[in-house]
Amino acid sequence: MNPLKKLHAEQDQAVWLDFVARGFVQDGGLKRLVDEDGLRGVTSNPAIFEKAIGHSDEYDDALRTAGDRRVIDLYEGLAIADIQAAADVLRPVFEASGGQDGFVSLEVSPYLALNTAETLDEARRLHKAVARDNLMVKVPATPEGIPAIRDLTADGININVTLLFAQDAYEQVANAYIEGLERFAASGGDIGRVASVASFFVSRIDAAVDKLLDEKIAAANDPDEKAALEGLKGKVAIANAKLAYQRYKRLFAGDRWQTLSAKGAHPQRLLWASTGTKNKAYSDVLYVEELIGPNTVNTIPPATMDAFRDHGTVRASLEEGVDEAERVLAHLAKAGIDLDAVARQLVEEGVQLFVDAADKVLGAVAGKRQKFLGDGLDRQALSLGSLDEPVKKAIETWRKDGLVRRLWQRDAGVWSGADEAQWLGWLTIVEDEAKKAADYAAFAAEVKQEGFTDAVVLGMGGSSLGPEVLAETYGPQPGFPRLRILDSTDPDEVRAVEAAVNLERTLFIVASKSGSTLEPNVFRDYFLGRMRDVVGRDKAGRHFVAVTDPGSAMEKAAKEDGFRRIFHGVKQIGGRYSVLSAFGLVPAAAMGLDVAAFLESACTMVRSCGSDVPPDLNPGVQLGLAMGTAATVEGRDKVTLVASPGIDTFGAWVEQLIAESTGKEGKGLIPIDNEPLAAPAAYGTDRFFVYLRLEDGADAGQDAAVTALEGAGHPVVRIALASKASLPQEFFRFEIATAVAGAVLGINPFDQPDVEASKIKTRELFSAAETNGSLPAETPVAEDDGFALYTDAANAEALRKAGAGSDPVSWIKEQIGRVKGGDYVALLAYVTRNPGHLAPLQAARVALRETKHVATCAEFGPRFLHSTGQAYKGGPDSGVFLQITSEAPDLAIPGRSLGFATVIAAQARGDFGVLSERGRRALRVHIKGDVAKGLDRLKSALS
């Protein structure tokens, strides 16, 4: 008789075999193995399943058919079908054995091995999904897994306990099984239909102990001691298993067990796992021949099975040499080797090995998904130069520590352990909002039917920058109003918006999360007052919609004023992460974009950055790790954004996201947007470049410049967009990337303490001005007919010591003289934002970069207060600031005693006040008279 068949017949020894998904079922191989070798069960594990994913056309065909979705669900569905098919093939064995053999074993995700509650939920889900009574759910014997084993057994679920190494742990597992049966019986369950195996890993113990023995042998001087230690090699695992079997016999023979046995309970069989011989010096059938005994299972690898068929010896070996086994373990302890400590380490390593295998499965799935998506997914390529190895290490750390999963689980420990979990609603907002697509479509139809010619967003920061990208990228849609943005309290900008529209045919979208932000409130007050003048008080509210968080002051006011509609944001989403929520989607619908298609495009990136995509294939995580590592390892904290024409306004949105999220606690990334490209020599070693390239609108000059930067060794990330339609993907990519970069920096990326400080100071100044009739007077440090300069006492003293005199230009030159390597210069202009005013600022920043080789920013206030202002005040102290203010004819605000000129002046002073409090190098240049002439003069001084 075949030794394997003889083993089955004489010793009730079952053999289980790893089940290769699809392969065995498709060609009848599983049934053949059952027929030939009387297999008692099969197991499914990630390492085997990964091979099936790599080679199965059926999986590929299913993926192509499904298109873009959370494809791990699809693969799991196919695997569940395989498990069900295997269970059905083994059903006759199961029935013939009275429900003791013929099982298929399915493993709970190894990512849950250290979480009891999640292990319970997942095991119950898998049990329900397969719906076969010859299924065993595989649960590791970690400290967290043992109570799950008890509770699952109490549910009547068959359990395959895995990762057992220590006898004490085995006894805990056996007792958990017994207690689970008692509870199941007490609840009226039929314990006779419950089966379990305890998988005791064997050869891994010898591999670990032999290594420790070799170290002891090398350190020993006594030849007898060396020989005694040498004699222990290759014996510890067998001894450990034999003594575990003795515990099995005791545990399943006492009165407690007899009570259960009388009710039909079956003992939990010991299963010998890891029975292939790892040391070539040992017999290739060692862990089969020495572990044969009643009511046990041996999971023999195919090669070992073939070896045993050829020359294995069948004997009842499991209870041979028990006394010798005890002596072996006693001698091991005397030698100073703690077997329990070895077992604990092996459990930890075993969990990690399972995690590694699962990561390979997920990586295979993600890789195939990316392949089949083709141009449907915006491509990302990293050319990191000297950062390549540090970023690879960061990626491996994130994989090994499961940080992508923890991020999606909203674990605040990924960051600072503060309140981060309360601000992660943006992770699932795309799917949530997709369910409301019909409501957005109805709103769009309503706007179109009303015949509005313009829709104006009244907001700041996250409420305005995202909609601005949509307006500038996609432009007016046929039959829908033109989308405009007002995010400046500059009187001339307010006048310009009013002059550009016909109020009777204009819809205003008032956007404010809290409803307490000054700017949206004064915008609403002004245009609601003007609308009442034009169409009457009763009809004015129909020209307004509000986007705000539930219960806000804005919601209350909108109801009182009869707004057409109120859309709610999500309290768990901060403003800068809100573009894929109502704050971006209401303007998108109003301008005629297909919100459903918009969200579906975004969802492609959401899935690509999901918890089941390993960091090396996860575009958002990969980008975030690259940005964070560049800053922490090489000081490359100036994230320079380059974008093709047609999508170039995207940088202003990214600028806010990165700066406001990461710039705090003296750390941060400083985004550099809209800085004209130059030759590599113009840049210092603090740069990190991100190039968003629009495939159907790329600029050849940008291509050449970026290629030159790569060639010079600057780190560059290239992101390729097939068309503007895929831009929604980039919103989510950068949201994930910024959150990950914040984790690398070790800060909370969801608060904005210094923005709040500026808001508070502005409100205080404006309230005082309303009471007193004007802002308090100031004394300039230098003045002439064109400029008046202001700064705080500390900066004034430093500049005077450096050589600043009575001439304002000398102060400007000395301010720029403070710039050193690694700094950046920020021109903060509280003037009307238009091309004429931007041109001299751009020329000045280019001149500064060429002479100082530093990064430069040109920002318009007050909009940057809700954007880069956080990083300027709370980030690294590497900024040199020139604030620019001017005088403009005031514009009254209905219901308020002061107008927009006072508002913007209060904002500028509040901003400067916080810069001073933070000890920043700041100087304010106030332009008297003509702003254009003043900016040209400033450009000359800076050049």
TrEMBL record:
Subcellular location: Cytoplasm
Pfam (any one): TAL_FSA
InterPro entries: Aldolase_TIM, G6P_Isomerase, SIS_dom_sf, SIS_PGI_1, TAL/FSA, Transaldolase_2, Transaldolase_AS
A biological-process GO annotation: pentose-phosphate shunt
CDD domains assigned: SIS_PGI_1, SIS_TAL_PGI, Transaldolase_like
SUPFAM superfamilies, per the entry: Aldolase, SIS domain
Entry keyword Cytoplasm: yes
Key words, A-Z: Cytoplasm, Gluconeogenesis, Glycolysis, Isomerase, Pentose shunt, Schiff base, Transferase
GO cellular component, one term: cytoplasm
GO function terms (MF aspect): carbohydrate derivative binding; glucose-6-phosphate isomerase activity; transaldolase activity
Recorded catalytic activity of this chain's protein: D-sedoheptulose 7-phosphate + D-glyceraldehyde 3-phosphate = D-erythrose 4-phosphate + beta-D-fructose 6-phosphate; alpha-D-glucose 6-phosphate = beta-D-fructose 6-phosphate
EC number: 2.2.1.2
Function as written in the Swiss-Prot or TrEMBL entry: Transaldolase is important for the balance of metabolites in the pentose-phosphate pathway.
Similarity remark: Belongs to the GPI family.
Protein's recorded name: Transaldolase
Organism, scientific name: Methylobacterium tarhaniae
